[in-house]
Design brief:
This is Response regulator. The chain is α/β, with parallel strands linked by helices. It is 59% helix and 11% strand. The protein has three domains: 127 residues, Response regulator (Rossmann fold), CATH 3.40.50; 171 residues, Reverse transcriptase/Diguanylate cyclase domain (Alpha-Beta Plaits, 2-Layer Sandwich), CATH 3.30.70.270; 117 residues. Strand 2 and strand 3 form a beta hairpin.
Length: 529
């Protein structure tokens, strides 16, 4: 495979050239092959060679005389030619590095470069080039099943993202664009897990036989594909567990779930169960959302008669809180002491559990945690969802011990918590108030509200009192009294009917509460006494 190197420092250029000439990569037919290396110390000459040879990979310095590496990237690209670029950056060039990622550069390497790191990055890109070529070949096949084959490749790619944290590399965005899935990296989405309600739908309440279940699942898939088209961008695929997985934009997921349930019941005469994840906003958070959807589906199949079960409504019932989840709750509450304890437990868990046996693995675990954090709370931050910056990579790559990682994570999480606390605690309270206003006439509890907004009941109670000056119970009573006064003034309903409408089953208790809050009995208020 051809690769062009562009570097105006002769010693570095020769070193990179030798390193890549010695490199052996996996060939297209399973054997090994060497790299065809073209090295240039002049960017103008390099550009001519790139236009002539069209190498799949280009390795270029950023700061050069006559033409910068970023200019080279822009000028080399064509609609029908999109090579993979790696930039060579000095420690002072990170602003250039950020710009390069915006231009679609796949990776970067710092000077002085490490030979093994360079080999590893090139091997990764060679593998990516070959995979994309194979995908294009299959997608563009001339036989009538080419489209089905392409969908199968897409589903395999998506299932990989669902089951394993995505690598923090820019070429992931290119893969998403290839499958027209870039909306997953640009906004909020939810995952839906779908299966048929096996236990209750058979004759005389007996479980449906496995063969019948498979036929029902097949029908759900066919219907699901049609429904998904109504709510694009969205995608449906089959999970290894035989359930159907749908990924949809957050704004459309509720309507999609309700529509799928309705259509299956009307046309197939049996029930589905749908588990809906929480809202995620980064591709790195997809495995967590996938797990949430499956957990909600398990609860829907075993613990409820409702067709649609939302993870955020049953979170405390479907899984124990893990250390990372506890840390995120501490961050949302901006509690420095709990953040410190949470960081301690998370990092110690990595080390003691063997998940971070090396400094490189420790860095990767930390990066994955930060991506998960951004995906969970990023929508609440001013300026939208934060991005994993090159500067953050650099800081992580300089951390080699667990105590250093704890200090870094504590400072980073505390900063995020401070931003959340300063700008969005009121948003949480407003969400809570809306929920109460929609349900004040029912027998609602603080625990239900806490599960809805994703906080503990104790913390929500404190936050609500601090932001509104009143307690949850007092706020409910005030809404009921306001509604009662309106009904007394504007309707001819009897007092006991009004009591029932605003949430009281005991008319005497309603009358006592009304007089305490309003200074008059309901009858006195109605007749203006």
């Amino acid at each position: 495979m051809k690769i062009v190197i562009v570097e105006d420092e002769p010693d570095i250029l020769r070193g990179m050239e030798r390193t890549l000439q010695e490199l052996r990569t996996e060939g297209p037919n399973g054997g090994s092959e060497s790299m065809d290396v073209l090295a240039f110390d002049n960017p103008e000459q390099a550009l001519l060679a790139i236009e002539r040879e069209r190498p799949p990979i280009v390795l270029t310095d950023i700061v050069m005389d006559g033409m910068t590496g970023l200019q080279l990237v822009e000028r080399a690209k064509r609609p029908d030619y999109q090579p993979k670029f790696i930039i060579v950056s000095g420690y002072g060039d990170f602003e250039f590095a950020r710009q390069s990622i915006q231009l679609g550069v796949q990776d970067y390497i710092l000077k002085p470069f490490d030979r093994e790191e360079l080999r590893s990055k090139i091997r990764t890109l060679v593998k990516l080039v070959r995979e994309e070529a194979a995908e294009r070949e299959k997608a563009d096949g001339l036989h009538p099943y080419a489209k089905l084959g392409a969908l199968s490749l897409r589903d395999t790619f998506l299932l990989g993202l669902c089951t394993e944290a995505a690598p923090m590399r820019e070429h992931l965005v290119h893969r998403l664009k290839f499958w027209e899935l870039e909306w997953l990296a640009n906004g909020a989405y939810q995952v839906l897990a779908v299966d048929c309600a096996a236990a209750a739908d058979g004759p005389d309440g007996r479980r449906v036989p496995e063969r019948e279940l498979e036929l029902r699942r097949f029908a759900i898939g066919n219907i699901g594909r049609e429904v998904v088209r109504e709510f694009e961008p969205a995608v449906i695929l089959r999970a290894p567990s035989q359930q159907w997985i749908i990924i949809a934009e957050e704004s459309k997921s509720d309507a999609l779930a309700d529509r799928l349930d309705q259509v299956v019941r009307v046309y197939q005469k049996y029930n589905v169960r749908i588990g809906v994840s929480g809202v995620s906003a980064s591709i790195q958070a997809l495995p967590e959302a996938f797990g949430q959807a499956k957990a909600a589906l398990r609860y829907a199949l075993l613990g409820t008669d409702a067709a649609v079960c939302r993870y955020m409504d049953v979170r405390s019932k479907v899984e124990d809180q893990d250390p990372a989840a506890a840390l995120m709750e501490a961050i949302v509450s901006a509690d420095a002491e709990r953040i410190e304890i949470g960081v301690e437990k998370v990092v110690d868990g990595w080390v003691v559990g063997g998940a971070a046996a090396s400094s490189a693995e420790l860095q990767r675990r930390c990066l994955d945690l930060i991506a998960r954090l951004y995906g969970s709370v990023g929508a609440r931050l001013d300026g939208g969802h934060p991005q994993i910056s090159v500067e953050l990579w650099e800081r992580l790559e300089a951390i080699f011990t667990a105590p250093e990682m704890k200090r870094f994570l504590y400072e980073h999480c505390l900063g995020i918590g401070g931003r959340l606390s300063a700008t969005h605690e009121n948003a949480v309270v407003e969400q809570a108030k809306r929920w109460i206003r929609e349900r004040y006439f029912r027998d609602i509890t603080l625990q239900e509200l806490a599960e809805h907004v994703g906080l503990s009941a104790v913390w929500l109670s404190q936050l609500f009192k601090r932001e509104t000056g009143t307690t949850f119970s007092e706020y409910v009573v005030d809404l009921r009294m306001e509604a009662a006064r309106r009904l007394l003034r504007e309707t001819t309903l009897k007092v006991y009917e009004i009591a029932e409408k605003v949430g009281y089953t005991d008319v005497q208790h309603f009358g006592q509460t009304f007089k305490k809050k309003c200074g008059h009995s309901p009858k006195e208020f109605r007749f203006g006494r």
